[in-house]
Amino acid sequence: MKKFKILFLSALFFAGMYLSGSASAFTMKHPNFMRHKFMRCRKMGLEMGMFNVFMLKKKLHLTKNQIHQVRAIKRQEFMAFKSNIGNFKNPLLTSVKSGTFNKNIFVSDITNNVKNMAEIKANFLAKFFNILTPKQRSKFVFLMKKMIKNRIKRLEFMKKTINEKIKLMKENLAK
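RE: above sequence
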């Protein structure tokens, strides 16, 4: 009886995992999936990552006017990316266009793409910093440093965990 319960529960568990994976895969294949996701981000005012206006409002004590300005320049950044998307090249396609791989074209195209994106982001950050007071700027820099330190700690932990798994796998392989 106990074996039957364990078998039944494990079958139920795996069936649930399979069905949830299928539902997830169906959702991602659905043509409107990304559009709905994009619209949700737009409704939130393009608030992603460190420039989440709600987080900034709380941590930097932004005024309503500053929040409005941050949202406006974030929209400008998004529109700049959107209008500049035609200038981004696929480095792999252009580098093999002649029938052989051209390393110089590949490096040049990637460099230009990154340069264009960096220019757009730099314009955003310059405008963003102009909105902040000197006290808010120093608090923002402090938050960025704290976020980087936390990311380093997380990556170091992941590195330690991976190294332990590698060690165990090598030991098992040697047996």
